[in-house]
TrEMBL record, chain A:
Membrane topology classification: Multi-pass membrane protein
TM annotation in the entry: 14-39, 51-75, 95-115, 199-218
Domain of life: Bacteria
Species per Swiss-Prot/TrEMBL record: Nocardioides dubius
The keyword Cell membrane is assigned to this record: yes
Keyword Heme: no
PANTHER family: AMINO-ACID ABC TRANSPORTER PERMEASE PROTEIN YHDX-RELATED, MEMBRANE COMPONENT OF AMINO ACID ABC TRANSPORTER
Keywords attached to this entry: Amino-acid transport, Cell membrane, Membrane, Transmembrane, Transmembrane helix, Transport
Localization: Cell membrane
Protein name per its UniProtKB record: Amino acid ABC transporter permease
Automatic annotation (TrEMBL), chain B:
First and last residue of the signal peptide: 1-20
Residue ranges constituting the Solute-binding protein family 3/N-terminal domain according to the UniProt record: 58-279
Similarity comment: Belongs to the bacterial solute-binding protein 3 family.
Alphabetical keyword list: Signal, Transport
Pfam families: SBP_bac_3
InterPro entries per record: Bact_solute-bind_prot3, SBP_3_CS, Solute-binding_3/MltF_N
Gene3D superfamilies assigned: Periplasmic binding protein-like II (3.40.190.10)
Protein name: Glutamate ABC transporter substrate-binding protein
Domain of life where this protein originates: Bacteria
Amino acid sequence: MEAVLDDFDTYLKAFGYTLLLFLVAGVASMIIGTFLAACRVSPVPVLRGAAATWVTLVRNTPLVIVFGTLSFMAPMLWTRLNFRWVDVHIGPFDFTAFFSAAVLALSLYTSAFVCEAMRSGINAVPLGQAEAARAIGLPFSGVMTQVVLPQALRASVPPLASVQIALIKNTSVAAVFGVAEATSRMTSFNNDFASQRTSIFLCFAVGYIVLVEIFSFFSSRLERRWRVAR
Amino acid sequence: MLRSRARLAIAGITLMTAFAACGDAGDDDEGKDVDADTDAASQIEDGTRMAEIRDAESITIGVKFDQPGLGFKSATSDVPTGFDVEIAKILASKLGLDTDEITWEETVSDNREPFLEERKVDLVLATYSITDERRQVVGQAGPYMLTGQQLLVKSDSDVESIADLNGQEVCSVTGSTSIDRINEQGAKGVGFASYSECVQKVLDGTVEGMSTDGSILAGYAAENEGELKVVGDEFSEERIGVGYNKEQTEWCEWINGALTEAFEDGSWAEAFESTLGKSGVETPEPPALDPCT
């Protein structure tokens, strides 16, 4: 316990990275996932096929493989993909090649699950809604953004919350891909303070539980506020 | 029907060829077997853990599986190789055990102490640095090797020492002592799962350099001749020892005795030459052993 308390700044900074990975990848995955879901229900066969292929491919691949592909294979195919051109420093946090690759891997991976959660929401919107939207002359983009997606989003809050909670915990994979986030720091602490392994583990477990609980709290509030009255 | 079966056959053949190709990868250097030293074994006092192992004719030793030259097991071989492994074989032989009576267990940095405490392994020889902190939970005898941290960079790099990389990212293994030392030196340690992944990151230019024990780096520099080089002085000193369960205090004197014998009869030097020495590192003087308390 003393090991973590004595170096509490490091502990906080580690969870700062975890939180930042989650926030950036969470927002990005929502955007990509929503776009994918729109593609999957679009009237254009090519878009439907492409989105379905993407979801099948990414959803069936272990996250470590997605990380590995982006960290090791991508730079071999195209040098620009080593992300060395990303070099942003804000306060104590460095956003460099490793952070970028991790965010990209997490966003792409999570987007497939977001897409499916969204699609379940879209299926929950009564067909009459889309037909009515078309009847007043809205094009496909209008039908989606004005009528279907706002309702679909409300219906899919619970599954989306599950997907994003999984993302909070998935950020731990970045530990072995160059980001000094919580799990990586825990390993360092364990290595330095062999006699305090159990308490170190508990400290970091509590950190993750707190993050997930905060997120769950807000998502259940949102769920109640956004409930669609039918 | 016929088409799908043909497709299946083609897929099967492709897979088989792929596996066959994998089987050929790398030349397996199994290391040499060390026969049981029955004279030494007969002198072990009864009632000790060593005598139990001698009579049971089996020992479990924890080693690394991912550090070339020290403890390494390729996907296609059954036994690990490296300096730690050779020293483990010498210790086992002095317990009256042949090399094939040793059970090798992979101990990554994180599970060395738990495995010793739970008695999943009898000894740990896994690049195990001796520290006061660790001696509170496990027993550590030795050291049988001294090593220090250096820097591996691209051959055309201007970097001469860790000081040149102040504030920049340097690759090492997540949660290792090496990564702490990098941070202490003013560079920013970035962690990957294994050293070979760091080598990849140096080669593709994502990081300027990587750092860990000089002996490990020398192996990678030799493997990628003309592309990578080892630079700078050693900026840390690690004392690599043998870990044992803290309650079995009889180990310490015995391990020190066995190591002293190995230092004197040349088997220690031989173990070094056949593993780490291959990459051109000169065989050093055997280190001074810590007295047992």
